[in-house]
């Protein structure tokens, strides 16, 4: 085979201490790792080839003191950072990093934060148990985990159920399900069950996971009919109270373990309710050894094997489990058919080779997104993007002159909008604009959230709705680049553009200044930036949403956030982000003029700066640490600047509003609408 013409992909696999390449391989050669295992843990090495180089973390030999230090740090922060630090050279010099559980992912992400100026390879962070135990973690550990894992480039999960739970915790983050598979190089034949009356059914059950439901298994096998005796072997390191028909063993090598499989008639995987596909490794091992499987229907196992491959029973259902054992014991043909169907799944997709190659595909996808987009939008546009129907929604108040200029700029889009909807409290707010082809003028209650809901109500058959502020001047290719992103990735549900200049952070910009910036290649240049990158929320002055997802969820802007509706963009986009990705499209760019006309008075805005984040925290759309940082930053800025206030900002009014809000919050009164009475 000829050598590749390009540099190979260099992937570094950071695994737990004890799973290092050298130490694992040594134990594997001795047969000291029970189970159908790989020469190198989890089979990531199978992705290696002419165009892929795989390097795996190593375990440093420890003395008692260094081991104590590593354990101490792990105890304090909840994951093994010292082990990641020891492997930092391999991590930082790779093209992409893979981790197997959330513990290694957090260690790598902390390493990135402690080396801020270095290049950080993209991280594929797999989560296994975190979602199951999330609610049991202390608040400060949840804060650390959310802070770190929200920086991962891609979160992967072994179960769709696990991923669905994560959507609520990490809304908008890129995530995907990766099917886990084990080494499937050999499939051992197994003699079919042939029982004579009085022979016991030989049931094998294995596992150390805390979600194993030994109680249901033992109870079910204790209640079989008298003419159907049963002997159960439970292979676990956990202690259980075993009645006479149950034998507990702890296999220490493969010879012992495989002998248990060879002597069994069927395997039972009894489980309590969980999210992480507990038992999938045992099901795959049993299938490879030729045994039919009964499993509890939980954790997303059905996404791996359907009911034609595995006999499923409800969680905790003793009678159903007992009946399943008797049914399979009396039907060897069904058992053989189940095994063959399950093996077909393993041959085609549920194996370690496919698992490793999936990581390669995801890595290449991540790295390709880091490539800057072409300056010519037509080079990236696909037929699907060209067919994207886009509606623009503008909520406005008190700026008719600027609004007319904004609409004029939008008429220059290379991907024309299907419709421009404009909503204002009064007709005077839209003076000088006429309802014409492609422009619809609407009236609604005063307040950004109210007006944007009116716009949603009138967005008919569009694919995307883009909300622009009435003082946002969009680059002519804004909608084209937005369409490219949504068409290329159906997981994207929220997109925000690149703000080239933001007048809201200063005295504001004139229309002439904004247009001059758009025409200046020194300002309007995002060619060095990736076409698409993760974002935490949509920025209210320019944000796009997939309308189908909005309709599916029935989501609305929160009308308890009055007038300027401070942080309504965060609230809405983080909620929708639970259904997909939130991204920044760097080619969708523009200038936010930050006009000071039509703004909320200082005292009212200051009140919202404190109360709205606290309200959204209670609502569950804004983490507490983010809320406290936002409140502290705004209060500090208002106090300092009130000594020498800017002529265009009522700093002293904002300080008064801040303190009124703090007073109400300390009394337990967190009501955003109260700002209307100030």
TrEMBL record:
Classification of source organism: Bacteria, Pseudomonadati, Pseudomonadota, Alphaproteobacteria, Acetobacterales
Pfam families linked to this entry: Glyco_trans_1_4, Glycos_transf_2
Annotated family: Belongs to the glycosyltransferase 2 family.
Residues annotated as domain Glycosyltransferase 2-like: 392-503
UniProt keyword terms in alphabetical order: Glycosyltransferase, Transferase
Record keyword Transferase present: yes
Designated name of the protein: Glycosyl transferase family 1
Domain of life, per lineage: Bacteria
């Amino acid at each position: 085979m000829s050598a590749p013409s390009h540099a190979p992909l260099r992937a570094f696999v950071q695994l737990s201490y004890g799973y290092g390449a050298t130490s694992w391989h040594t134990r594997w050669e001795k047969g000291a790792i029970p189970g159908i295992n790989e020469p190198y843990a989890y089979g990531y090495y199978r992705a290696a080839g002419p165009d892929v180089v795989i390097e795996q973390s190593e375990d440093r030999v420890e003395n008692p003191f260094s081991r104590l230090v590593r354990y101490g740090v792990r105890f304090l922060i909840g994951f093994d950072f010292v082990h990641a630090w020891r492997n930092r050279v391999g991590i930082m010099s790779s093209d992409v990093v893979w981790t197997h559980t959330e513990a290694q992912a957090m260690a790598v992400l902390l390493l990135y934060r402690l080396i801020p100026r270095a290049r950080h390879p993209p991280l594929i962070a797999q989560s296994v148990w975190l979602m199951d135990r999330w609610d049991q973690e202390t608040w400060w550990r949840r804060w650390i985990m959310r802070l770190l894992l929200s920086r991962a480039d891609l979160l992967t999960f072994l179960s769709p159920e696990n991923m669905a739970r994560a959507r609520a915790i990490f809304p908008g983050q890129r995530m995907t399900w990766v099917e886990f598979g084990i080494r499937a190089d050999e499939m051992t034949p197994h003699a079919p069950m042939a029982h004579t009356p009085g022979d016991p059914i030989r049931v094998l059950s294995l596992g150390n996971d805390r979600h194993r439901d030994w109680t249901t298994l033992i109870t079910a096998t204790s209640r079989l009919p008298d003419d159907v005796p049963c002997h159960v072997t439970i292979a676990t390191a956990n202690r259980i109270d075993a009645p006479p028909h149950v034998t507990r063993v702890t296999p220490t090598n493969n010879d012992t373990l495989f002998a248990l499989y060879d002597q069994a008639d069927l395997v039972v995987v009894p489980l309590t309710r969980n999210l992480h596909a507990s038992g999938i490794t045992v099901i795959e091992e049993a299938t490879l050894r030729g045994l039919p499987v009964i499993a509890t229907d939980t954790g997303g196992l059905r996404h791996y094997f359907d009911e034609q491959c595995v006999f499923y029973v409800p969680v905790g259902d003793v009678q159903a489990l007992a009946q399943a054992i008797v049914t399979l014991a009396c039907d060897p043909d069904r058992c053989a058919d189940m095994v063959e169907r399950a093996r077909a799944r393993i041959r085609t997709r549920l194996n370690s080779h496919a698992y490793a190659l999936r990581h390669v595909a995801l890595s290449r996808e991540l790295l390709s997104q880091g490539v800057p987009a072409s300056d010519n939008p037509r080079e990236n546009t696909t037929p699907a993007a060209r067919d994207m129907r886009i509606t623009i929604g503008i909520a406005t108040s008190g700026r008719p002159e600027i609004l007319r200029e904004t609409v004029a700029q939008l008429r220059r889009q290379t991907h024309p909008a299907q419709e421009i909807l404009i909503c204002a409290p009064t007709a005077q707010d839209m003076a000088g604009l006429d309802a014409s082809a492609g422009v619809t003028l609407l009236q609604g209650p005063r307040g950004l959230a109210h007006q944007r809901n009116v716009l949603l109500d009138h967005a008919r058959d569009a694919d995307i709705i883009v909300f622009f502020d009435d003082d946002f001047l969009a680059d002519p290719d804004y909608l084209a680049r937005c369409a490219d992103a949504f068409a290329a990735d159906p997981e994207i549900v929220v997109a925000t553009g690149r703000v080239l200049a933001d007048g809201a952070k200063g005295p504001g910009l004139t229309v002439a200044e904004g247009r001059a910036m758009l025409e200046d290649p020194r300002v309007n240049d995002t060619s060095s930036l990736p076409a698409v990158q993760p974002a935490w929320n949509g920025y209210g002055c320019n944000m796009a949403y997939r309308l189908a997802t909005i309709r599916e969820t029935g989501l609305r802007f929160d009308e308890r956030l009055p007038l300027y509706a401070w942080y309504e963009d965060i609230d809405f986009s983080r909620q929708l982000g639970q259904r997909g990705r939130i991204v920044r499209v760097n080619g969708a760019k523009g200038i936010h003029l930050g006009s000071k006309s039509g703004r909320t008075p200082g005292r009212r805005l200051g009140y919202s700066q404190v109360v709205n984040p606290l309200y959204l925290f209670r609502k569950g759309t804004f983490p507490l640490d983010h809320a406290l940082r936002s409140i502290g930053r705004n209060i500090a800025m208002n106090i300092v600047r009130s000594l020498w206030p800017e002529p265009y900002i009522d700093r002293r009014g904002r300080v008064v509003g801040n303190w009124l809000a703090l007073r109400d919050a300390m009394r337990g009164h967190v009501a955003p609408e109260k700002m209307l009475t100030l």
